[in-house]
Amino acid sequence: MSVLIHKTGIQASIQDLGRRGYQRWGIPIGGVMDEVAAKLANLICENSIHAPVIEFTLQGAQLEFTDAHKIALTGGGSQVIINGNPAPMNQLLIVEKGAILTLQPNPLGCRTYLAVQGGFVANRELDSASTYQHAGLGGINGKNLAPHEVLEVQKINTGSALPDNAPEKYALQAGTSLGLIGKGFSSEGPQVSITNPALQAKEVWIDACKGPEWDWFDEDSQQAFFSASWKIDAQSNRMGYRLKNVLLKKTTNKELISTPVTRGIIQVTPDGNPLLLMADAQTIGGYPRIARVCPADLSILGQCAPGYIVHFNCIDELTSLNKKSDVLANGY
Amino acid sequence: MTPASIYPIHDLALTVEFPLPVGMEAHEKVMQLQQLLWQFPLKGLTETVPAYNSIAIYLNDQSNWMEAKKELEKLLGESWSRQNKSFAKDDRDGNEQVENLDQKNTTAPVTIPVCYDVSLGFDQEIVCRELKVSPKELIQLHSQIVYTVFMIGFVPGFPYMGELDDKLVMPRKKTPLAKVPAGSVAIAGKQTGIYPFEVPGGWQIIGRTPLILFDKRRDPYCLLQPGMNVKFEPIDLPTFQNWK
To answer: Per the count of CB atoms within 10 A, which of A240, A265, B44, B72 is most buried?
Structure first.
């Protein structure tokens, strides 16, 4: 079975759960921006959670399935239409041969994930199929998807489903079974009930700890950081989100000696604006770090589009550690 | 040895930072600690990312940053935890174990052929004028030193190497060049570097190497790694053009 890309929409790329072990060479972990939704899509298709998926940013994509196949769509930022009919997210779908899938606009969310049973065939390079364009890694040619490309699907091995005692499997709750029959697809099994605050409103509250250079900032800036309504600027992408509201000021002229950084860290650039590092952020940074987002909340941020308002809620280190990051097991 | 500070950058990652300026001393401490971490090995260790005077330690979910910090402090001795209750950096004598591991960087240098022809070293004219050196002096001063790779970052494979001769120290360009050709050899501050890919860049470009710094089809992927020594070898334009 193949998937033909007619249109990619704003951006589409093959991603998995990231590339670990190569940051010392300047290669970021990368991978999906909303880990919860991506894992769910694979689980519904009975794939390994590590199977490559397509991550779509917002609307506009159009694909064609050359054969009947089982698929799942999760996340947000789009409304799924198959052969003209709305299709449910978070549920196993069986598409008909020749079915056309389009992603229409949706005011809430930012990234939609498509998993196919068996997983997409992609270049597994440096231990991951995640696309990282700067180094031409992963995907099907080291680049984001382009119109007219054809994606192959792995042949399904019977017995590749998760073992019965896998914690992720227990997390799939029996929800409402829609049994929606429409032209182009049918659905099977329960629709998983999952909540991501970013899929319910365009304003979110995110837990964050003070960062290593928290003390470099004056009291007003410290207070502002944890009270302002930060707007995600249009200049935001997989590398990071630019946040706008007040300008943050240092109490010192000290310059930070370039040091490792990772997803979730919030730097303050020389112009005084916070920069929230995301999946494809550089591995080394020289800007002071005022805070770091609790990793359990990164999937919320993955569904925040430009224009969203973000509030940061100060938590201590222990609270961050205790907040479970596998929300499929615990919910939000 | 002045003690370091240890702090989290993620629930599953922490950084050890030495209160030292950029230079060989900081680099050696970072490299010693990196080796110690892998030899021990630290529980849950997945990767280490060295930088100028700090090193990040990434963990899997078998551990977390607090557990790793406790292990690290035990590994490096009691004196660390006493001195590091806050992030205050003081000058009391630090840990002896790390000191005894003092290993000079003795790896044989990797040779990087570089063509300093003005057609490839776009910024040479400005650099020579600013630094008041002749092109010949620039080439000699740049190529006669054995550099050490302090870290790789900014883009995959980009090596930050030190230390440049004092006569060659000058700041980055005010306006970065939109597309720096792959292989460009450049200088900024006390470091020299090589652009592995065509990317925007603000370092002063003085030459170009025909070597490919990052190749996903090659073993090793990255030609240069932190801790390696590097020597630039001047080659002429025809040699550069006919390389490989």
So the answer is: A265
Residues of B in contact with A212 (CB under 8 A): 7, 9, 15, 87
**ipTM of model:** 0.89
Q: List b or e across A168-190, with b for residues whose CB sees 16 or more CB atoms inside 10 angstroms.
A: eeebbeeeeeeeeeeebbbbebb
Confidence (pLDDT) at A183: 55
Partner B, chain A 286-305, Cβ-Cβ below 8 Å: 289, 292, 294-295
Q: What share of chain B is helix, strand, coil (3-state, %, to 5)?
A: 25, 30, 45
Identity of the amino acid at B111: T
- How far is Cα B181 from Cα A321, in angstroms, rounded to an integer? 44
How deeply is A234 buried, as exposed, middle or buried, from its count of CB atoms within 10 A (0-12, 13-18, 19+)?
A: exposed
Q: What angle do CA B188, B189, B195 make, to 5 degrees?
A: 25
> Nearest Cα to B31, choosing from B13, B15, B54, B8?
B54
pLDDT in tens, A9-26: 999 999 999 999 999 999
* Phi, psi of B184, rounded to the nearest 5 degrees: -65, 130
At B223, the amino acid letter reads L
Q: Does B212 touch chain A (CB under 8 A)?
A: no
- The answer to whether the CB of A187 falls within 8 A of the CB of A292 is no
The amino acid at residue B144 is Q
| Three-class SS of A108-148 | CCCEEEEEECCCECCCCECCECCCEHHHCECCCCCCCCCCC
Residue B188 DSSP one-character state: E
User: What pLDDT, in 10s, does the model give residues A243-261?
Assistant: 999 999 999 988 899 999 9
